[in-house]
Amino acid sequence: YVRFHLISPLIQQSAENIVLFDTFVNILSHNLGEPAYEADVAQLEYKLVAGEYGLVIRVKGFNHKLPLLFQLIIDYLSDFSFTPAVFEMITEQLKKTYFNILIKPETLAKDVRLLILEHGRWSMIDKYQTLMNGLSIESLSNFVRAFKSQLFVEGLVQGNFTS
């Protein structure tokens, strides 16, 4: 079991940055779908999660091939690229996801409660409005470049691994 948290202060600076971060993580997951398929067949699991303060990479499975899967994820992260078609597809999916969160009273109530309790939190309404106003491909590229330059990493490795 390997878990790394790539933390960046950049994410919480604005609602736009949060939306750009969600877009980035979804595109990264989309890009990894085909190359990581063989790892999935070999019973290796991975998950990319857009956390509040950064990207959480979780990798789980047999230890002898786990570093190869983790390296694949890091390679795709460091050489991040996307096509305009993928960008449009992911932003449309995010619009639906955000909208579905907003129409459920219990998730909206939780979001409002957390907005009151947490300093510097951006509401789902702010994120949805930012996304509806439109994101540019250039803004995503600039965000990803800035994100990769301002990272702090925490990691945990459990299991049959040598140092």
TrEMBL record:
Any Pfam family matching the protein: Peptidase_M16_M
InterPro entries: Metalloenz_LuxS/M16, Peptidase_M16, Peptidase_M16_M
Domain Peptidase M16 middle/third, chain residue ranges per copy: 1-129
Molecular function GO labels: metal ion binding
Keyword Metal-binding carried by entry: yes
SUPFAM superfamilies: LuxS/MPP-like metallohydrolase
Record keyword Metal-binding present: yes
Superkingdom of origin organism: Eukaryota
Alphabetical keyword list: Metal-binding
PANTHER family according to UniProt: INSULIN-DEGRADING ENZYME-RELATED, NARDILYSIN
Protein name in UniProt: NRDC protein
Organism of derivation: Neopipo cinnamomea
Gene this protein is translated from: Nrdc_1
